[in-house]
């Protein structure tokens, strides 16, 4: 497991009059090399949860195990610096954190801080930029002169340059145009599938991540309301409504088709292309046993 | 959607034009214009979506209308006022803007104070402020939140408060600059409902910068920008039927449209279904008549 949470709770301003519980009793396991989506209504605790993943916040109850480091509530925590290198956290609007005069300097900042030589850092910067699908020619450019989508990718590359095992992103596609959003999700999926990194994405656009995520975590008011595979979620997507979320169209259409044709035991088709393909194949062959007798109509 | 589309009449002079731009351009440096040669007329009461890829100049364009940014050339007329140094304050009273992140436009310590802030700025009599406060809070369903701090609200509630604050100032033109991009799907649908009510009232000319397929589809008209120029001025249906234009604008079709296209490519002409139940009704005969 890349990340394992046991009965974790988190209370802001604990031991004060204004204490506020953000997370209650969360049990969670994220397998290494998987792609996980986290969803939940505003104020459900998503951002608090993310900050537990690399020790920015320490649990006020339970234990958090990330890679080989365990942080237990009430105990002195181990050295967190190596963990912070291995877990890359990308906050909302990461481009707002760029500050250097060239993309290369910005990308080298992290690796240099973790003690790499300038040469190694540059090598990392180059690779990270390629991984985010950007042209290495951008290295010499001023980051503030890039387009919105390029800037977002460059900012994510600056976290990637630290070569993290786990990449955690908070709303990485927010405010990008639909084409750039789709591109970014594909790039993140490649990091997971080709390089074996664990990729965790918080999103309020479930529809765009649904075809790619291995599993989903849904939070409601600081509690875990669901954890399971996309297939399990597709079987009962209406749990999302109980959590104050809207069921994405791709799930609703799949649900309707799966109900009508009895497809619950197969992997869900969560893109327009795959669903159309499945419908076409249903229309091309006679319906299977039992459900729809042919009643001599041909 | 077609029945609600009100095209610009040939005899546009008779109709009231809220926003008129003639050969408007903008650039920080003349060598690299950000917008050039923008000519556009929006009649009173129309709902226009402004679309285009990130960085194409959409936000810049709407900021020229009330001189948040100074135009470099051309002529802008807003509700009959030609944009000049002396008319800027009149024009600003005609235009309300709602931005991406409502947090950036909160000023008051409570929702009530926040709505009143704009009204104080208009130097309205006390009784008028009181009455507008209640009318617009009720209209947007936030009357129960009046004493809350904006920080205690959910994203959707915050956006409602921001809209109430703007509408209370009774502008004729309301501009939404990606106002839903930070909202979850439920709150996005709420926002769409508010806009539809505004259209029904007929008092507002709505300009909405958006990438969201459902929002675009709800508008009367779509103006597409790319490379600093208007590349199309069409109905939402025309936009979503034109795959080349969609790609140029970095847009995607709404999911039911995409599904219809993919089914069509596979020889199933079921058309665009309004929802998943209709889809099942439409594809069932294809399965049954084999």
From TrEMBL, chain A:
The keyword Translocase applies. Gene3D superfamilies: P-loop containing nucleotide triphosphate hydrolases. Pfam families: ABC_tran. Its main location: membrane. InterPro entries: AAA+_ATPase (IPR003593), ABC_transporter-like_ATP-bd (IPR003439), ABC_transporter-like_CS (IPR017871), ABC_transpr_CbiO/EcfA_su (IPR015856), ECF_ABC_transporter_ATP-bd (IPR050095), P-loop_NTPase (IPR027417). Residues 3-246 form the ABC transporter domain. One of its GO terms (molecular function) is ATP binding. It is a peripheral membrane protein. Keywords: ATP-binding, Cell membrane, Membrane, Nucleotide-binding, Translocase, Transport. One of its GO terms (cellular component) is ATP-binding cassette (ABC) transporter complex. It is found in: Cell membrane. Belongs to the ABC transporter superfamily. This is Energy-coupling factor transporter ATP-binding protein EcfA2. The lineage of its organism: Bacteria, Bacillati, Bacillota, Bacilli, Bacillales. The gene is ecfA2.
UniProtKB/TrEMBL annotation, chain B:
It comes from Paenibacillus albidus. This is Energy-coupling factor transporter ATP-binding protein EcfA1. Residues 19-252 form the ABC transporter domain. SMART domains: AAA (SM00382). Its main location: membrane. It comes from the Bacteria. Signal peptide: none annotated. GO terms for molecular function: ATP binding; ATP hydrolysis activity; ATPase-coupled transmembrane transporter activity; cobalt ion transmembrane transporter activity.
